[in-house]
Amino acid sequence: MRGTKRGFRRTIASLLVLSLCIAAVPALPARADNKINELQNQIKEEQKKQNDTKDQKKQTENNINSLNNVKTSLQGELNGLTDDLTQISSRLEEIEQNIIDKNQEISDTQEKLEQAKETESSQYAAMKQRLRYLYRDNNRTYYEILFSAMTFSELLNQSIYVEKLHEYDHRMLLSYKAQREAIEEMEAKLEEEKAQLDDLQAQAKEQQASIMTSVNNTKNSISAYSGQIAEAQAQADALGNQIAEQDKNIAALKKQLQEEIAKSRLAAKSAWRDISEVSFAEGDRYLLANLIYCEAGNQPYAGQVAVGAVVINRVLSSVYPNTVSGVIYQYKQFAPVLDGHLAIALANDSATAACYKAADEAMSGYTNVGRCVYFRTPIEGLTGMQIGGHIFY
């Protein structure tokens, strides 16, 4: 009878455990769906970010086009200013040559003026000398010339000669004076023309300086726009690289999504054993407790139980090995196995009493994470059940 009761109790207990497990079954698809939805949302978010990046790149490229248009316009303006500068420089050279020529004309005219003045002075001196000679000593000489004539005809000739001489001297004096005055007028005119050339030169130099300032300002503007264009192009290139990186991220997320969908479908379709169907080996408790220590020794007790439950869930799932050691030592599944920490813990039996207690609870079929078969430290975008410092999913 007692055996019957014990069997009944075992049956009841099994049914209770089974009920708990069945109650937990919906959690896996829900979490898997949440993961899939979360990945889909991530993909949408990444695509949105990529679209934003593309918009930024397009805007940057439009900005580059605008800057290039302004630069081209400035270059055209610079070409026009350069032509103007060339023309005004040529004009200035012409004016400067004219000034040189005008100075030479003035110098030549001044020499002519000096010669004319000297000629006029010489003529005047000669005329005075002759007059002085003719009229000296109370005009005796003049009278001697007149009265030295032997005949009336000679007298008349002598008188005419004297008259002609006076007329010649007077005419020559007036001629030299007129020549001097003409040269002086020419000199004044040349000086006036030179003054005008000086004004033209000053204006041309001022215009040349103004154009040169405009040229330098335009060159500086072109240089500034060139710098902006280079900076914008670098930004566009960086955005292009960012878009390429986002393409990789989106592709990786899509691949991960497909893998998660496959895992979800596989988990939903896989068979699960009852805990009562599991036969534990002698060292399973020791192995599981030390793995719990390596994975969650610094976590709260609930987190330690949850790690043990993940291992047992894998044992119960047909997708994973059906033994504790097979699950724990499956290739690249648990980091402490790969980095050697589990081997050290097993050598020293580092597991605490809490770790052993958590292993016992998990091996009894208790789970506080439903049928979760994964756990890890939280990362951005990972959803699931968080206990302590781990996310279980």
UniProtKB/TrEMBL annotation:
Signal sequence bounds: 1-32
Region (Disordered): 45-68
Coiled coil: 173-263
Entry-linked Gene3D superfamilies: 6.10.250.3150, Cell wall hydrolase SleB, domain 1 (1.10.10.2520)
Domain of life from the UniProt record: Bacteria
Feature: compositional bias, Basic and acidic residues: 45-60
Pfam families recorded: CC_PcsB, Hydrolase_2
Single annotated GO MF: hydrolase activity
InterPro entries: Cell_wall_hydrolase_SleB (IPR011105), PcsB_CC (IPR057309), SleB_dom1 (IPR042047)
Span of domain Peptidoglycan hydrolase PcsB coiled-coil: 117-185
Residues covered by the Cell wall hydrolase SleB domain: 299-393
Keywords in alphabetical order: Coiled coil, Hydrolase, Signal
UniProt-recorded name of the protein: Cell wall hydrolase
